[in-house]
């Protein structure tokens, strides 16, 4: 049987690390084992054409061939179609190229699958989050989603938004985690704390992400100020680029300098080796392993990947109700493998973390349940869903 030619496209890629970059890398990495599919990654940018050899899968990069953006994409897609063949193009993050890809489907001869990943589909008016806050952008996103051969949703809340805009049913395929890698490299709490220089007696909570309004880190720090009254030896590990610079005034104002640790960005982008890149980074795994609990105070989340990573290490989770609206997040069962709180409520942050941190038996019980649930999201299982979708769309 002739192999189906699958092209994945993404507006940005490694060494930049974000949700969609991690997803595309894992899909490409695992598709190598599928005999019926011939997949490659395609990007357009301000550099001369090359096939990048330092990636474990085919990766084609093109320069700008002309000044007109639409014509540039058309020429690149035409070259790829003629030289290598294209049956399906799967675009992650839809704003940059979605309209153009849809426009040339019939002319060049391929089908588009579109997967939004965050602010290109979700909106939160109370904090001004999302492209769709702008009505003109919302109509553009609607037209992009309507014009595709198929849309996929990484969570229930994303699916709801896609289906309302596109007026057609999307296919829900969650993001995944590298469970075997995580379980192989995650260590015991004591060993991890020794490597990181953390005290065995500390009660450690971890949060991951770069500070912006949607993450609710101001709410988290307000909750920590209350929590330290009942748990004086609590430590918050706040992983993410520039968090210390952006949050130091709040930390100082709440008198939390002895209670907050800022490891910075993990991993540093410039240290990424694409041939061996796996997530989460080994250092981040140590921080997960060292923690008593994981917390997320987000106001909006397309898919809580770091939540699942922490669960895969066997950690109980405290997260906002927004996580009940996504697959990653629906993995969180209130009172069984963690606690659900309302967004924007620092007193609930303090209350639920206090319950967890003061009850070691509850931590262990919820941690076991968290790991059991996380197993459902192994990338191997998720990739089977994508591979099946590619074959169906290519054959229709």
TrEMBL record:
Gene3D superfamilies: Glycogen Phosphorylase B. Residues 191-372 form the Glycosyl transferase family domain. InterPro entries: Glyco_trans_1, Glyco_trans_4-like_N, Glycosyltransferase_grp1. The keyword Nucleus does not apply. It comes from the Bacteria. CDD domains: GT4_PimA-like. Residues 17-180 form the Glycosyltransferase subfamily 4-like N-terminal domain. Signal peptide: none annotated. GO terms for molecular function: glycosyltransferase activity. SUPFAM superfamilies: UDP-Glycosyltransferase/glycogen phosphorylase (SSF53756). Keywords: Transferase. The keyword Transferase applies. Pfam families: Glyco_transf_4, Glycos_transf_1. PANTHER family: SULFOQUINOVOSYL TRANSFERASE SQD2. This is Glycosyl transferase group 1.
